[in-house]
Amino acid sequence: MKLSLGILLSVATASAAFSQNIVQPTGPLSNDIGCLVQGLDPNGDGFLALRAGPSSSHRQIGSLRNGDAAYIRACRGKWCYVENGSINNVETRFRGWIYTAWCQFYP
User: Fold this and answer.
1) pLDDT per residue over 46-70, tens digit each?
2) How far apart are alpha carbons 89 and 43 in whole angstroms?
3) What would the DSSP string read from start to end of the chain?
């Protein structure tokens, strides 16, 4: 899967979405917390939207599928800001917000 230019250009948009309600992951593994995408219905839309901000009303800038992974940098409720990860088992650079209902968290 190729990433859209929108993902790479979303840095400023996603950074602007940070607010006082952002919670940074804490603990000894806080820099290495990740989300492994799981549980998406392959007969449904089959992807987890990567968004410019922490809600479904924000513009979609990319997508992740079952088996893809992303590093979590901050969270706001069930939405987390992610940066970089693996798409189709290829290390990939991206930034944006995901809804964590389809995340298996790992250190």
Assistant:
1) 999 999 999 999 999 999 999 999 9
2) 22
3) -PPPHHHHHTHHHHHHT--TT-B---STTGGG-EEEE----TTTT--EEEESSSSTTSPEEEEE-TT-EEEEEEEETTEEEEEEEEETTEEEEEEEEEEGGGEEEE-
Q: Which amino acid is at 56?
A: S
Q: pTM for the full model?
A: 0.72
- Find where tokens 């250009």 sit: 9
- Own/partner pairs, 75-81, CB within 8 angstroms, 24+ separation: 75/22, 75/23, 75/25, 75/100, 76/19, 76/21, 76/22, 76/23, 79/54, 79/55, 80/35, 81/14, 81/17, 81/18, 81/22, 81/54
Between the alpha carbon of residue 94 and those of residues 28, 57, 107, the distances in Å are: 24, 20, 19
95 closest CA partner among 77, 76, 80, 78? 80
Q: What's residue 44's pLDDT?
A: 87
